[in-house]
Amino acid sequence: MLILGVESSCDETGLALYDTEQGLLSHALHSQIDMHAAYGGVVPELASRDHIRRALPLTRHVLETAGKSLQDIDGIAYTQGPGLSGALLVGTSIAESLAFSLNLPTIGVHHLEGHLLAPLLEPDPPEFPFVALLVSGGHTQLMRVSAIGDYELLGDTLDDAAGEAFDKTAKLLGLSYPGGPAVSKLAAQGQAGTYQLPRPMLNSGDLNFSFSGLKTAVLTLVNQQRDTLDDTARANIAYEFQEAVTEVLTKKCMDALRKTGMKQLIVSGGVGANARLRERLNEAARRRHYHVHYPRLEFCTDNGAMIAFAGAMRMQQKMQESDHSFTVRPRWDLAELTKP
Ligand code: KG4
Ligand code: ZN
Predict the structure, then answer these.
(1) CA angle 122, 123, 124 (to 5 degrees)
(2) pLDDT-based confidence at residue 225 (cuts at 50, 70, 90)
(3) Any known ligand binding at 111?
(4) Which parts of the sequence bind substrate (predicted)?
């Protein structure tokens, strides 16, 4: 079964072809980062308009790369939510129109389910059940994943997501959007011991997170250092901030594995691309004989491959008739998903 995947929930247009026998055949992405950078964040209307420009050329591109034609496709999966409503509407309407004209079944995929399953696209994927850490711009969640669609929330952030904290810290340090990679790059030049930042909820005993206090602590530091905030000071703050976030994430992941008795952890979402987080998780897991799985770097952030894959997994188990009418779900709780 050959599935075309369409991702357009935020500032990346992603297309991919996933074959249930042969695996991922092709994928392509256009990132709008340069377009939004001038505004310091995503401008929703510009995002929607750019998705319109990119979606069909990228569709042609993935078909050509895979040596396939539209007639070879067996189903179309698209991100139905959560995300920016205008951006979602572009991918959704293109996917449903294509499917209508080709008489194909469709499936609206939950964006976070896409992220969650992305590590399964890699060689030697984990088997169910496992613990998942989902760390993106909008989410910081620990989950017990027992099967496709069988997700139990173990812990969540009480306020800001980890990616959001990276983005806000980047702004405070005068770095460009998106903040995660920029903070991480600056942190590589920083040193330990100059500043101290809190490790929020490190020993709270539960699996929840809180990152807004950390952001406030960075703000206080930046204000205190205003006259002496040179490149070295900024690098040292970035370093300490990254240490604080990755220490908390690592500790809670180990707690989640211990509490559930599981041995496998998967990490997904944009912050999962962070090299220091991977280093800490790998080290902590190695000592306890746990195994950590990540998506390749380009599949940590938004992409079409994870949507094609999640859609294929669901369609394989349950084909749904579609009349090709559609709605998007800009707000959609992962807990509402059920098994296919
Ligand atoms: O998963 P994603 O692409 O989009 C959402 O669905 O939110 O995640 C984007 C988030 C942003 O907050 C970005 O700053 C962060 O992931 N991010 C990183 C890194 N790369 C992306 N954070 C820390 N280190 C990175 N290397
Ligand atoms: Zn995402």
Answers:
(1) 115
(2) confident
(3) yes
(4) 134-138, 167, 180, 274
| Domains in the chain with CATH codes | 2-116+299-336 (3.30.420.40), 125-294 (3.30.420.40)
- The C-alpha atoms of residue 97 and residue 231 are separated, in whole angstroms, by 51
Q: In degrees rounded to 5, what are phi and psi of residue 58?
A: -70, -35
Report pLDDT digits (tens) over 173-194. Answer: 999 888 999 999 999 999 999 9
Q: Rounded distance, CA 340 to CA 337, Å?
A: 9
Q: Return the amino acid letter for 28.
A: A
For residue 20, give the DSSP letter: T
Return the SS3 of 42.
coil
Say yes or no to pLDDT of 84 above 80: yes
Q: How many CB atoms within 10 Å of residue 130?
A: 23
- Residue 296: what residue type? R
What does the pLDDT average to over 193-216?
96
pLDDT tens for each residue of 23-51: 999 999 999 999 998 898 899 999 999 99
**Which ligand sits nearest to residue 271's alpha carbon?**
1
- Residues near ligand 1 with C-beta < 6 Å? 115, 136-138, 163, 166-167, 178-181, 184, 269-271, 273-274, 301-302
Nearest to 285 by CA among 318, 256, 322: 256
What residue owns the CA closest to ligand 1's atom 22?
180
Contact 301, 132 (CB under 8 A): no
Query: pTM for the complete prediction?
Result: 0.94
CA of 89 to the centre of ligand 1 (A): 23
Report how far apart the first and last C-alpha atoms of the chain are (Å, whole number).
17
How much is the pLDDT for 319?
Answer: 73
CA-CA-CA-CA dihedral for 319, 73, 121, 21, to nearest 10: 80
Amino acid identity, position 43: V
Pairing of strands 12-19, 2-7: antiparallel
